[in-house]
């Protein structure tokens, strides 16, 4: 997979497409074509290569197909080749500063979409997501606690400190989990309204024993600080979940 990513990144037009999505996520094909001196078909070919490498994801919103930057593979390369030992919460706060310093257009479309393929069954992924003993292995040493019923609360604890809280908005084990989300102890998030995090867990259509895990963070029009932290934090969580389920170890282990 790393070879596919490096090959995809080698082309300057594809890097330009990723730069566009980094600047403003959730773009249509027409929007992505505008800055490039390429045919519509040429841009589609580049987008297909990026999607096959896992660097972007797509979602249908109404009649449009929108494209989103998938930070998980880049995060994995960073962890593997650059710095395994970076403090994740510090990374999140750096991203928060960058998010607050740049003008961001907020709308009702999904904004942050991350996806990863894990060699595990959906039931194993669900257990890892909902079992506090397992979440602590990949979610920044945090244990997630809930009764796992619709409209029940959930909390994310790091030792004796509560990091986040929310409500189960929808639950369909082992395929779908929708949470409201609010940080309670990270600086800069005190005035943020609750946002929404959706976990979609689907068997891979072509690879037996492989599960696609997609996390969508949206409804954060009044939670810019939270959005900045999760934009960088969710790829780390997904990378950690993959490492834990496939190897039994943690990212730093």
TrEMBL record:
<dbReference type="InterPro" id="IPR036388">
    <property type="entry name" value="WH-like_DNA-bd_sf"/>
</dbReference>
<dbReference type="InterPro" id="IPR011991">
    <property type="entry name" value="ArsR-like_HTH"/>
</dbReference>
<comment type="similarity">
    <text>Belongs to the AHA1 family.</text>
</comment>
<feature type="domain" description="HTH arsR-type">
    <location>
        <begin position="1"/>
        <end position="89"/>
    </location>
</feature>
<dbReference type="InterPro" id="IPR023393">
    <property type="entry name" value="START-like_dom_sf"/>
</dbReference>
<dbReference type="InterPro" id="IPR013538">
    <property type="entry name" value="ASHA1/2-like_C"/>
</dbReference>
<dbReference type="Pfam" id="PF08327">
    <property type="entry name" value="AHSA1"/>
</dbReference>
<protein>
    <submittedName>
        <fullName>Metalloregulator ArsR/SmtB family transcription factor</fullName>
    </submittedName>
</protein>
<keyword id="KW-0238">DNA-binding</keyword>
<dbReference type="GO" id="GO:0003700">
    <property type="term" value="F:DNA-binding transcription factor activity"/>
</dbReference>
<dbReference type="InterPro" id="IPR036390">
    <property type="entry name" value="WH_DNA-bd_sf"/>
</dbReference>
<dbReference type="Pfam" id="PF12840">
    <property type="entry name" value="HTH_20"/>
</dbReference>
<dbReference type="GO" id="GO:0003677">
    <property type="term" value="F:DNA binding"/>
</dbReference>
<dbReference type="InterPro" id="IPR001845">
    <property type="entry name" value="HTH_ArsR_DNA-bd_dom"/>
</dbReference>
